[in-house]
Amino acid sequence: MSLPPGFLEELRARTTLSQIVGRKVIWDMRKSNQAKGDWWAPCPFHQEKTASFHVDDRKGFYYCFGCHAKGDAIGFLKDAENMSFMEAVETLAREAGMTMPAQDPKAAERADRRSELARVMDEAVRWFRLQLSTGAGAEARDYLSRRGLSQSMQDRFEIGFAPDGRQALFQALTGRGIPADHLVAAGLCARPDDGGQPYDRFRNRIVFPIRDARGRCIAFGGRAMDPNARAKYLNSPETELFDKGRSLFNHGPAREAAGRGQQLIVVEGYMDVIALVGAGFEAAVAPLGTAITEDQLRMIWRIHPEPVVMLDGDTAGQRAAHRLIDLALPMLEAGLSLRFVMLPEGMDPDDLIRAQGREAMARLLAEARPMIDLLWQRETEGRVLDSPERRAALDKSLRELLRRIKDPSIRTHYGEEFKRLRQELFGVARSGGPGRAGRAGGWQPAQPGERRAGRAPFIPVAPLPETRNSLLARASDQPIEDYLREAMILAIALTHPSCVERFETELADVELRAAGHDRLRNALLAAVRAGVGGEDLRDRLMKEVGADLEKLMSLPYIRTAPPVRKAWDDELAAMCLAEELAKLEARRGAEEELAEAVEDIESLANEGLTWRLSQAVDARNRAGRTRLDDDSDLGEDRAAMSNWLQELVEKASEIKKKR
């Protein structure tokens, strides 16, 4: 229908926007200025506690500084009440006392017919409600009582009963002057194929009125009392009032509850909704016997940007979740998503609430899983990914999923999350962190000229448990200190192959006691002697001793060491390698001297014992200077070592005197 020029301007001029919006919000009077028509409230379109929703009566315009919703009175009714444009205009015109322009005859006829059918549906609601209280409805009342539905809940959802008679409703409503054609058009009755009198669609069923967002009854759902009925649940057929794919059970009340801050819950059926509402979860809706459609999903997102979809934990429930995910992927936008709760198998929301209480349901809602969790589970569960080809197939399916996401930002974030999950699955982030792994398992050094970003001021913090338990933190233990020193020698040699030729003899002679270190040293020396270098060296070592190599280079103590990070500084590497070799030789030499001295003590050796221990002290100190100038500071606490050995000498002398 086309409106004459100036009609909408006149309508907006007669409409006070704050009066329309005020039916959905609670104004913040401390922030609002009523005299100037300046109003503030929490936004009715998204959850918030602060008043970021602004209405300007003088301009007839609203805007939310949180979710950026904006528009005029017509737009507000369209978004808040799910009205069409003409429905919003008609509502505002009626409230403003304006007469709607004459419609074309066909449109007026359709509007009148829908109004008439809505009145027929209201008559049916009242009749079904009455039948529930009769003798014929006794079994239905018992069923509702067993399901825990109080009288107040039955009244709230206007639950009724259709008796087991072929034409009970038909005769009752036609007896009130309602034409038979209206009963058929409303979906309450159906005509037989032979052209006889219409018969009732709902017979021997508990009936649930289905209302649109404006509260008009547009259809019914019926639950069979006969366990042998062909369909346990039956919905009205699609009519001029009812479009199954564009309707939700409990739409209007759920939207109001979500506007008050409750979490929107999407469940499978009427009884699920009623059970949740009875437990205090009033923002609950259900599709009408079919999988959620694209239109229904848009309606759900208009109610809440991140609803929780609650499905049975069986195979059928998982299939329904996956169908919904596939539907939602191309429609995702920033702030619009889905979360999922899979109920224990064999339980529906009513069973869970009655068995474990409202708190159990609240815990499940709090633990709802994001959509990507179920998507990843679907793509990986039950798949054996033990070959490059199978992993490539997984990568292909993930890329296809990403291509279905239209929003570039959402697609990027999903890609990053897939990458992280893939790294966890295959364990490729063993060292260096995601995205830093090199060809040899993540031990590629920094390149010349590489600089770190500016550092923040140092703030002392308590050490983490993993830090306190690290090898480096426990290095006062002699075997661990030796292990780290051996690891440092090998890491320097691996990062700087030029040092291998320079220190070939020392590397070949040094005793490496840690598991894997000897194999790694031998492989390195053999490769360098064969003239292998550069990338070929790393590839060869990965093939021969890859596990030992990755274990070595994954140590944080090694990765952060200057000679390893600075792969271009061969002089620094040579100095550090000489130092580490000297320290290790000094420790091993002192151990041998002490071992011999202890043997002499135990066998009451001659007076040369003291002299030999003294020589061990000197040897320990001299060894630290064999590779560098005497003035070099190797970082060794020689005074402490001398004192320690001197104490051994004194104790040994005391033992000899006593013997």
UniProtKB/TrEMBL annotation:
The gene is dnaG. Binds 1 zinc ion per monomer. It catalyses: ssDNA + n NTP = ssDNA/pppN(pN)n-1 hybrid + (n-1) diphosphate. Its cofactor is Zn(2+). Residues 433-452 are annotated as: Disordered. Its EC number is 2.7.7.101. This is DNA primase. A zinc finger (CHC2-type) spans 43-67. It comes from Albidovulum inexpectatum.
